Amino acid sequence: MKKALKITNDTYLNMQSIIMYHFEIDRVILRTPLDSESNGILIAAEKRMFDSGYTKEFVVSIEEVKRIQREICKYMGIE
What we know:
The protein is an alpha+beta fold. It has one domain (about 5-75). The protein contains 1 helix and 6 strands, in the order ββββββα. It has one helix at about 60-75; strands at about 5-10, 10-15, 20-25, 25-30, 40-45, 55-60. Strands 3-4-5-6 form a 4-stranded mixed β-sheet, covered by helices on one side. It is globular and about 35 Å long.
């Protein structure tokens, strides 16, 4: 069953396409398959002052970062 992860009001990610994820206090780093247009995704609570090298970057509130972390953990079966 496909499940969409809401990143912003108009951006969603099919959670089946997540092949790697990493959580930090104020950010989520996601990797998707190489043939995807959004291979590397950074979701952070603040804008980075340098080029992070990620294909897509989204700045959201810290509450949204925590929500995204919870949704990924639930989907992946990690509590």
